């Protein structure tokens, strides 16, 4: 049963309309180049419109994989498709795997999370719904539905598995980058607990420049490895897959300005010498 007739899941005409608009999405996050405000993470500020970090993160990230699963369940039946190719099922599994970690596990294992402004929260939900609709519709009905169509997609089995390897390299590396950031927060918690035992006043927010792993070379390797992850996904789908290409480009345009602004924050907070020699997020830059 459709949640919104012809929109969720989307008819082919509406899918093509959504996808066309999705192609132009980079215009919106590019506005971040002209503003310093971003109500999340290090740059979050006190506001009556803030949502507690864990709750906000969970509720803004889960709609993505939940929407994709719903589309994969309902759209094939509407088009008389009884069995999806194994490639479609694997790719859907990769998408869900990423977001099970990102949306569910991530906020649970974080030692702490800053509040998220409702504007950022709402924008993230719209991103998730639109992206999942485009990718889910392509995988469920509007992309290649037979092995012959997969061959016509110019995606060989070898290319598919190369894409899987790239995806997993990005996924695993992204996890370890996150773990390094979590360790910094754990150290803060341990200091807080020691001060509490000694009867001393607790410290306020504490930040430091990560130095281990890929953080030795760049300030935002977790962004870079997520781009690697979705590059692998695009390689696996075949380079003519517009939804996968859009996802990668839209993430790039959304995250690059935040990384550059974040590098300015690090410079102001710790001084240029502390981050000297580190790339921001793109190797060599």
From TrEMBL:
GO molecular function, a single term: 3-oxo-5-alpha-steroid 4-dehydrogenase activity
Organism: Pseudomassariella vexata
One GO term describing the cellular component: membrane
InterPro entries per record: 3-oxo-5-alpha-steroid_4-DH, 3-oxo-5_a-steroid_4-DH_C, SRD5A/TECR
Annotated protein name in UniProt: 3-oxo-5-alpha-steroid 4-dehydrogenase 2
Residues annotated as transmembrane: 20-39, 51-71, 91-109, 116-140, 160-177
Top-level lineage group: Eukaryota
Main location group: membrane
UniProt keyword terms in alphabetical order: Membrane, Transmembrane, Transmembrane helix
Its membrane topology: Multi-pass membrane protein
GO terms, biological process: steroid metabolic process
Residues spanning the signal sequence: none
Domain 3-oxo-5-alpha-steroid 4-dehydrogenase C-terminal, residue spans: 116-285
Subcellular location: Membrane
Family to which the UniProt record says this protein belongs: Belongs to the steroid 5-alpha reductase family.
